[in-house]
Write a structure and sequence with these properties.
By secondary structure, this protein is of the alpha+beta class. The protein has 26 helices and 21 strands. The strands form two sheets. It has a six-stranded mixed beta barrel with strand order 2-3-8-5-7-6. Strands 12-14-19-16-18-17 form a six-stranded mixed beta barrel. Strand 17 and strand 18 form a beta hairpin. Helix 24 packs antiparallel against helix 25. The model has no long low-confidence stretch (mean pLDDT 79).
Length: 850
Amino acid sequence: MRAALVLPWRLARRELRGGLRGFRIFTACLALGVAAIAAVGSLSAAVQTGLREDARQILGGDAEVRSVHLPIGADVRAALDASGAVSGTVEMRAMASADGQGADNARRLLVELKAVDDLYPLYGSIDTTPAGSVPAALAHKDGLGGALVDADVLRRLVLKVGDKLDIGDATFRIAGVIDREPDRGTRVFIFGPRVMIAARDLKSTGLVQLGSLINYYYRVRLDPGTNAARWESDLKARFPDAPWQVRGLSGAAPGMQRFVDRITLYLTLVGLTALLVGGVGVANSVKSYLDGRTRTIATLKCLGAPAALIFRTYLAQIAILAAFGIAIGLVVGAAAPYALVKLVEAQLPVPARLGVYPGPLLLAAAYGVLTALAFSLWPLARARDVAPAALFRDLVAPTRRMPPWGYQLATAVLLAALAGLAWVTAPDRRLAAWFVLAAAGSFVAFRLAAWLIAHAAALINRPGRAGALGPRLRLALANLHRPGAPTGSVVLSLGLGLTVLVAIALIQANLERQVEEQLPSVAPTYFFIDIQSNELAIFNAALKSVPGVEDIQEMPSLRARIVRINDVPVDQARVAKSAAWAVDSDRGLTYAAAPPPGSHIVAGQWWPKDYKGPPLISFDAGLAAGMGVGIGDTLTFNVLGRDIEARIGNLRTIDWTTLGMNFTVIFAPGTLEAAPHTFIATVRAAPGQEAAVLDAVTGRLPNVSAVRVKDALDAVNQILGNIGLAVNATAVVTLLAGTLVLAGAIAAGHRRRVYDAVVLKVLGATRRDVLRAYLVEYGCLGLATAAIAAVLGTGVAWFVIARIMGAPWVFFPQNVALTALLCLAITVAFGFAGTWRALGQKAATLLRNE
C-alpha cells in the first residue's frame, strides 16, 4: 500500500522541488482553456440570473396577455381585473416630426410609440430627466398632452424638452427624456427610439385604424397567494380559442434568453476549441518533461523500480500541476465577468448579477481534468513500459512506439467523455454534435497534413539530390521529417487557430460586402407599413408626384398565430429549435395570386391565378423541415380570433438578401380578402429623392410609417461589427492557445536543437549557416501550415455563406494572404527564438558531459 500510494507522491513532490520549468506551457494551456470556458459560463450565469430575478420588471407584471390588431374582449378584461391590478399599454410604430414645420418638414423620424395608463409600470420604475412620476409627465398642460422621449428623438429632430412634437394628427409637449424603461430591451431589432404618451391620448393621433399593426399588452399583478402557473393554465382553459397570447415570468424575455443561450454555446465551443488545441500543448509538455527525465526513469528501472511506480510518480506530478493550472484558470474565469460585463451591459435589459457561480466553474474544471488526462496518458504510458536500454538509446535515436492497448483504450474513453460532456451540457445538442465531429475531423485532417508534409520533405531530401538542394535546404528538410520533429504539433496547433481566423475573415468580408455593396444596389429605399385599403390610391399618387420613383410594390399584410400542426396543438407538437421562433408568437402573412420575387418553389405547384377552393398556403421550406410537415399537411392559423385550417400546396426557398417583400406564409386567393388588414409597400427612389418621398407620403398619410432601409442597414452593420469583434476576440483565444502549443513544441525540441547545433559547429558550420537552415525549416513549416489552413478555412467559409446562408460567395485572397503572413511570422519568430537559444550553448560543456 505504501509503495502504491505514498511513495509515488513522495517522489513526485521531490522532483517538483526543481520548479515548473518543464511544465510552464502545460500550465498555461490548461489555464487558458479553463479560463475561457469558466468566463463564458460565469458571465452567462450572471446575465441569466439577472433576467430571472428581474423577470417581473422585464415582463411588466406577474403575467402578460398580448393581442395584435384588436384589444381583448370585455369578458377577458373582466377576468384579468378579477385576478389583480391590470395595466394596459399599446405599442406601435409611427412617424414623429417637429411641430410647426409644415408639410415640407424634412425632419421626420420613425419611432416606437407606447401609450400607457396611470398604473404603468406595475413593477420597477421609469427614470426620466427631469425626474418625476409618469402620470404627471404625461398629463395635459396648456391644452397639450405630455410625451416622454428617448434622447435620440431630441438629437435627430433637433428639439429640446418643452418643444412640441407631432405624432399622427396630434401634437404633444415633450415633458422629459427617458433614461431607463424597465420593460424594454428584450427585442434584438428596434427600428426607432421610444416615444411614450398617455393611453387616453392615443385616439387623437388617428393612428388606431382597423388592421393596423398594433400590439395591446395587459400586464397583471396577481393577488398575493395566487399560483401564477395555475392561473395561466386556467385562463387558457377558460378561453381556449382566444386570439391573444399569455405568458408568465418564465417567458419574460424569450428572445433575449435564446440570444444568451446561443452566444453562450458558441463562445463555450470556442473556449473548448482553445482547450483542445491546448491539449496538444499538454501532450508536448508532458513528452518534453519526460524526455528530460530519461536518465532518471532509466536509472530507477535499472535499480528495480516497477513500471507502475514510474507511471504513478509522473501521473502524480501531472495531477498536481494540472490542479495548479486549472485553479489559475478558474480564478481568472470567475473574475473575468467583472471586466467583460462592461462590454455587454448596454445591450442587456437588466443588470447582470455578478458573483461566483459554482456550476460553470465545476464544468470548466471538469473540461480541464479530462483534457489533462486524455492528452497526458499517451506519453506517460510510453515511459512506463519502455525498457531501460531503449530509454538510454532515446537520447540519440528516439523510437516511435504505440502504448499498450489498455492505455490506448483509456485515452479513447477520456476523449469520448470530453465529447460527451460537451454534448450533454450544450443548450443545442445538434450543434454540439457537429462541433464534436468537426473537432475530430480537424485533428485527423491536420495530423494527416503533417504526415504528408514530413513525407514530402523526406522524398525531396533523398540522398541522390544532395547536390541540387544544397546543405542548408537539406538540413531544413531533414528537420521536418526526422524523429522527434515538431511538424505534427505545429501543424495541428497553429492550423486549427488559423483555420478559424481564415473562416471568420472570409465570412465577415462576405457579409460586409452583402450589406455595403450588393444589398444597397437591389434593396428598396423605403418600407411603408400600415397603409389602409382606402389609402392605396392616395399613396400611389403621392409617390408619382416625386420624380425618380420606381419599382413600387404593394402587398396585403396580416398577423396570425399558428395554433395547430396537423390537428396537433402547437404546444404539443415536435418543433425543432431552428423553427421555434415561428410558433412562439404571431407572424406576418399575406395572400397572393402569383409567387413574389425572390422565391423558388422546391416542392409542389403554385396555384392558378383564378384559384377558388379550400384554404391553400405556400410555406417556407426551412420552417416546414423544422416542423416536420410537407405537401398535403395542414397548419391552423388564428387570424383575429378565427381559426383557419389550410393545406400546404407548395414549399419555397426565399432569398431574404434582396430585402424585398416576402412572407414565410402566403395564402391562395379567396380566404383572407375579407379579413381586416393593411398593406405594406416598398419603393425605390433616385439618389437625393429620399426626403421628398418621405415627405410626400407621410405628409398626406400621417398614419403610414416609413422604415428607411439605409437606417436598417446601418443597424445591421453595427450588429455585424459587434459580432465580428466578439468572434475575432474569441478566435484570438484559439490562436493564442496554438501559439502556446508552438512554444511548447519548440521547447520540446530544444535539447535536440542543442545537440544538432553543437555537432554542426564542431563539423565547421558557422552560426549563420545553422541559423539560415533553421529559418528555412520554420519558414517552410509556416507556409505549409498556412496553405492548409487557408484551404480548410475557405471551405468552411464557403459552406456557411453559400449553403447555410444561401448568399453569393466571393473569395477574398487578401484576407487569406494576411492570415498566411501571420502564420509565417509566428512560426518563424518562435523558431528563431528557439534556434538562437540552441546556438548560444557552448560545445565544450556539452561534449565534456557526454
